[in-house]
Amino acid sequence: MTSDESVNILFTEMIKKLPEADIDFNGIKGWIFQGQDHQIVFLDIEPIGKVREHAHGAQWGIVIEGEMELTIGGIARTYKRGDCYYIPDQVVHSAVFNSRTKAMDFFIDKDRYKAKK
């Protein structure tokens, strides 16, 4: 097993102990680390194709594994492992996932996602 594989397995085990997010996009799972005035969500995204356009509070993220095409305010760019992205407050954005992707997103909205019941 490579060090990347062992880190990925450990990451998955640790993260899955957090509350699972109730996400309304099929093929996307997330686990919430809740702050007083923000959320950090660890995402595991299947190759689901396009996620529809939407907007919410500011979001900063980093791709942990895989890649995605993210369109922010009409500008498309591909993000790969280690790349960071920022989506300003209420800017319309969408994404395309053609491979399994893991990301960590920081949402300024403290209640961006609710925990599954």
Mind explaining what this structure looks like?
The protein has 117 residues and is mainly beta. The chain has one domain: Jelly Rolls, CATH 2.60.120. 11% of the residues lie in helices and 47% in strands. The chain is built from one helix and nine strands, in the order H-E-E-E-E-E-E-E-E-E. A five-stranded antiparallel beta sheet has the order 1-2-9-4-7, with no helix packed on it. A four-stranded antiparallel beta sheet has the order 3-8-5-6, with no helix packed on it. A hairpin with a 2-residue loop joins strand 5 and strand 6. The longest helix is centred in the first third of the chain and has 13 residues. The model has no long low-confidence stretch (mean pLDDT 92).
